[in-house]
């Protein structure tokens, strides 16, 4: 799940770099499902 989330983040960086880079807690809406799965399976660190 973590790899899927980060793969999505890397893909979205090309489209919305400032949204991701400016604030670490911001992430593209397209990745919310992947992040939710990541958080549900892993210890949330952010």
UniProtKB/TrEMBL annotation:
Keywords: Disulfide bond, Mitochondrion. InterPro entries: COA6_pln (IPR048282), COX6B-like (IPR048280). It is found in: Mitochondrion. Transmembrane segments: none annotated. It holds the Pfam family COX6B. Coiled coil: none annotated. The keyword Mitochondrion applies. GO terms for cellular component: mitochondrion. This is GCK domain-containing protein. It comes from Nymphaea colorata (pocket water lily). The lineage of its organism: Eukaryota, Viridiplantae, Streptophyta, Embryophyta, Tracheophyta.
């Amino acid at each position: 799940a973590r790899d899927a989330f980060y793969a999505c983040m890397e893909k979205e960086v090309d489209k919305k770099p400032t949204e991701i880079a400016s604030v670490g807690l911001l992430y593209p809406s397209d990745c919310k499902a992947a992040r939710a799965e990541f958080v549900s399976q892993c210890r949330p660190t952010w």
